[in-house]
């Protein structure tokens, strides 16, 4: 990843306004980390759509109403961004 690469974190990006925001950012050249609460299938669909636009994307389950889940989420994102076998 170059220091000039743009990555956006969009919560609730599996549908509605969040998904629309993620797609528009991808169209403008931004890679996307998206979160979903319960609809993994729609999140995976959004990731596939972003990848089809030529951008990188990954989806993580996150309950933004549960502060205790944030630490694990941050660890997943950090691993994904720094892992040797995956890229965002």
Fold blueprint:
Layout: E1 7-10, H1 16-27, E2 31-36, H2 40-52, E3 57-61, H3 70-82
Parallel strand pairs: 1-2, 2-3
Walk me through the structure.
This protein is α/β, with parallel strands linked by helices. It has one domain. It is 43% helix and 17% strand. The termini are close together.
Task: Supply the number of structural domains.
Answer: 1
Task: List the strand order in the largest sheet.
Answer: 1-2-3
Strand content: 15-25%
The overall average pLDDT, rounded, is: 87
Computed CA radius of gyration, to the nearest angstrom: 12 Å
Major pleated sheet: 3 strands, parallel
Structural class of the secondary elements?
alpha/beta
Percent range of helical residues: 40-55%
Instruction: Encode the helix/strand succession as letters.
Output: EHEHEH
Which regions are unreliable across 5 or more consecutive residues at pLDDT < 50? 84-88
Distance between the termini: 8 Å
The shape, in one word, is globular
What is the helix tally?
3
- Got a strand count? 3
